[in-house]
TrEMBL record:
It holds the Pfam family TRAM. PROSITE patterns: SAM_MT_RNA_M5U (PS51687), TRAM (PS50926), TRMA_1 (PS01230), TRMA_2 (PS01231). Keywords: 4Fe-4S, Iron, Iron-sulfur, Metal-binding, Methyltransferase, S-adenosyl-L-methionine, Transferase. The keyword Iron-sulfur applies. This is 23S rRNA (Uracil1939-C5)-methyltransferase. The keyword GTP-binding does not apply. S-adenosyl-L-methionine binds at Q290, Y319, E340, D388. GO terms for biological process: rRNA base methylation. Residues 7-66 form the TRAM domain.
């Protein structure tokens, strides 16, 4: 094979027509030779001048220098740090166009990765007001020129971008973050330096319950000692309305993982609460809880529609977190069995079941890909299996065990269209047929999209 020589060089300025958006929200253009160039902040339909930044074998990354002809869908991003902060990628696109782009992203994933050309992908369910939706913020603390900085990381780096207001956080969350940040600076609590592993405060995590107004503040420290703890605590209690829980989380590891294993309750309750539908959930520092509560209700309603329960079914909630989907479905099912790998989330799921008087749901701690095949061998059967895996999707042995259990339906909730498309083609090869995909926009202004779909069993395995 002759070696391909890229037709562009680093530092070169070229003009391009933008024809699409990548799954990361970058504009995509092609040179005359058909060579692909990715350009952050460029939009489909735009003619742009770009400077090539990095050349790889089959594509290049470039910086936007000039918009020669602008897209009708371009808007001024309202957040002043949009272009530097890595939190949002597509605030410069109208919300209607964001939804169209996300639908196309799902269609493309099914076509390219799943080889499923004719998948029906419905228009995403969007938000009426696509701002102030997040109920959780994780703010890293660091040092710059000897001073404390706190904010969000810039895209693809650990450079902290400070902000005074985050437009996708719920107002209570946003206010709490700003307040804690300022107080930590005033009290001169030393922030963590990830280069030399010195300093103390690594992250502040804030979670709120929109239906309960509960607020949890988690102070992540590089060790047990938290200087000026009493002063910080008493001012938090005084100034943050709804404050329900203050936790110190100890994380001594040299790693990017935000939370360590040990939580110490400094004040209040160890959990906060929120509702999904009429089910009340406890949320601890470690537990996964969807970050957009309004859209979660819409997502779960879709799950319920796809599950079409009659009250006679055993339902599996695989990757159940704090048991949210299983407990939401419980009143329409005969029995619910959940599986989750984080022990604390399983404890929360059990407590959630008890607190809501749901006695026909049980939760098992373990890796789904190990527990489910074991259950299948033991003869456990379910009519409906719901899976809601992390971004990497389901392991093949898990899908095999689902198929062997011979359910009528498998409802698949996914935060990554690429792994959903891969797993969809595996389930279709194993005798299940996908009905259609419903994207739900859980993360407006970012490149993420959640999907829910259902696979019906085609042949009876007896
Ligand atoms: C996308 S979340 C879904 C949680 C829940 N269904 C919800 O809607 O809140 C995925 C969950 O899977 C859990 N998880 C990750 N890997 C797992 C595994 N191998 N086995 C079981 N659970 C796992 C995570 O801890 C997380 O709670």
């Amino acid at each position: 094979m002759p070696k391909l020589i890229p037709p562009v060089k680093s530092g070169e300025s070229i003009e391009l027509m933008i024809t699409g958006l990548s799954h990361t929200g970058d504009g995509v253009g092609k040179t005359e030779e058909g060579f692909t160039v990715f350009i952050p902040l460029a939009l489909p339909g735009e003619r742009v001048r770009v400077k090539i930044a990095q050349v790889k074998k089959t594509y290049a990354h470039a910086r936007l220098e000039e918009i020669i002809a602008s897209s009708d869908e371009r808007v001024d991003a309202p957040c002043p740090v949009f272009e530097t902060c890595g939190g949002c990628q597509i605030q410069h696109l109208t919300y209607a166009a964001q939804l169209t782009m996300k639908q196309q992203q799902v269609i493309d994933a099914f076509r390219r990765i799943g080889g499923l050309e004719h998948t029906k992908v419905l228009p995403p369910i969007g938000m009426d007001n696509p701002w102030n939706y997040r109920n959780k913020a994780q703010v890293p603390f660091g040092q710059r020129n000897g001073k404390t900085v706190a904010g969000f990381y810039a895209a693809g780096s650990h450079q902290i971008v400070e902000f005074s207001h985050c437009m996708i956080q719920q107002p209570e969350n946003d206010r709490t973050i700003q307040w804690v940040k300022n107080r930590v600076k005033e009290l001169q609590i030393p922030s963590y330096n990830e280069k030399n592993h010195r300093g103390i405060l690594r992250h502040v995590m804030v979670r709120t319950g929109i239906h309960t107004n509960d607020v949890m503040v988690v102070l992540v420290t590089n060790g047990e000692h938290l200087p000026r703890k009493k002063e910080l605590l008493s001012s938090l209690i005084e100034k943050i309305p709804g404050l329900t829980s203050v936790v110190q989380n100890i994380n001594k590891r040299r790693s990017n993982v935000v939370l360590g294993n040990e939580n110490r309750l400094l004040w209040g309750d160890p959990v906060i609460h929120d509702y999904i539908g009429d089910v009340r959930f406890a949320i601890s520092p470690h537990s996964f809880f969807q970050v957009n509560p309004l859209q979660t209700e819409r997502l779960y309603r879709e799950v319920k529609n796809f599950a079409s329960l009659s009250g006679k079914e055993t339902v599996l909630d695989v990757y159940c977190g704090t048991g949210t989907i299983g407990l939401y479905l419980a009143k329409d099912a005969k029995r619910v069995l959940g599986i989750e790998s984080i022990a604390q989330a399983v404890d929360n799921a059990r407590e959630n079941a008890m607190a809501n008087d749901i006695h026909h749901a049980s939760f098992t701690c373990g890796k789904a890909e190990e527990v489910l095949p074991r259950w299948e061998q033991e003869g456990i059967r379910a009519q409906v299996i719901v899976v809601d895996p992390p971004r990497k999707g389901c392991e093949e042995r898990l899908l095999d065990a689902c198929v062997e259990m011979n359910p009528e339906r498998i409802v698949y909730v996914s935060c990554n269209p690429a792994t959903l498309a891969r797993d969809a083609s595996r389930l279709e090869e194993r005798g299940f047929q996908m009905r259609g995909v419903q994207p739900v926009d859980m993360f407006p202004h970012t490149n993420h999209i959640e999907c829910v779909t259902v696979f019906d069993r085609m042949e009876d395995k007896g």
